[in-house]
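Why does residue order matter? Because the sequence determines the fold. Keep that principle in mind as you read this record.
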Amino acid sequence: MAISPLAGKPAPKELLVDLGRLERYYYERRPDLGNPTQLVSFGTSGHRGSPLNGSFTEAHILAITQTICDYRRGQGIDGPLYMGKDTHVVSGPAQRTALEVLAANKVETIIQEDDGFTPTPVISRAILVYNRNRNEHFADGIVITPSHNPPADGGFKYNPPNGGPADTDVTRWVERRANELLRDGAAIKRVAFAVANKADTTHQEDFVMPYVRDLKEIIDMDVIRGAGLKLGVDPLGGAALSYWEPINAVYHLDIAVVNPTIDPTFSFMTVDHDGQIRMDPSSPYAMARLVDLKNQYDVAFANDPDSDRHGIVTPSSGLMNPNHYLAVAIRYLLTHRPNWRDQVAVGKTLVSSSMIDRVVGKLGRSLCEVPVGFKWFVPGLFDGSLCFGGEESAGASFLRKDGTVWTTDKDGPIMDLLAAEITARTGKDPGELYQELTAEFGTPYYTRIDAPATPEQKTKLAKLSPEAIATARLAGELITAKLTAAPGNGAPIGGLKVVTDNGWFAARPSGTENIYKIYAESFKDQGHLDAIVEEAQEIVSGALKSGAALQEQEVH
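Structure:
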């Protein structure tokens, strides 16, 4: 697609949200129950929307929180609920609303003291630490965040006692019940915020230092300190901001916070590819300011507002493509974690680069390829059968040094610190190490393409079968696999993946937008990738009978 003329430039005033208007709409706007886009849609990343279009309001949060209380009761979950929020403007009001319902339902709730912000992985880790060696009274959690999405957005997700994003059996129940309560809220229990905040069931604790002190169990902080690396971090105005100085203090590191600003308008951002403010640490446009500083630090990094995504900036390559860094991180971890069992597998989403397959195969390890969505890594990270789970969208987590679970949700800060550990131990930054991988395995050419799609078209795409591919060849090569289920766990892809020896494409509908996506990769050259993309377009367009032209969004 065409790149906005604003891309990579400082956000102009006319793009900044009206904070007062957003908060007013959150409380005052009532969703149109006849409009499907204004109902609760509780996908794998929870419910997301905006007060501006009636899709994220107090009414939604009341209904969802009561539903979570009902779900807990039905499942016998009676331990504490850890609740965190990020720095989006409506995250604070949503937390207050949720607390009013949780207190009315007598749910013991733990929040960050002094109305502070909490990264998604900190909540996941807190749940797992509390539940360790328990047989009853399990904890769970709520994270209030729309991730890297624009400032006007809000998000609300539930993490059950396994600490990770709720699976589809949970989210489907939550969505159905919450929409019932949205239509008839008589069953919603609520007390005033002043009452909820002082309730016996509401507790304020410090989430920062327990997480910071535990980092030595997953990252080799001694080797980072010993190398004397000069590091830089841009929290992008997010929840991790208050964590970096304690990390410096505890481990005596040299991490400069290059942007210490918390501003719910995110006015300090450079504009993303489409002309929107979006705190995406994998976008070279959103990350333009940190990329400009690449030569001032041995490694620099960033996280999105809830800190579950990472962006790695190196002197050798600038902002690393997420696929590239995942491959480097996996090779390093598999050769520098001696206490990990040889049998543990590496998890990747099926639209992540095949460079990962080649790295894992060369090391004689097992690969677990799953559908899109971090939830698919949760069981393996939880029981230690997966040592790593990573997504092409810059989200990942991995095991502690002793091979036990750290988090079952994405953890941006550990991926940041891992880049520092890699640099300290090898004497090369991750960008240089990726160049070594391409010298050994070849250079992959990767792209993702978006196109508009109606809900009906998305349904058709999700039901494509291998028989939809009549041809035996793709871009001149024999097709070796036509997949509608993920090889790693047999779960439905919700689309299709076609593989050859030197390339592949995957087609799937978006879960949150009226678009569909084609991902493609070639290990030959750009011309081969173009051929894969062209034939993939023909296959998908033919299946949908839409004739709509696909537009290329981003090429790596």
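The longest strand covers residues 492-500.
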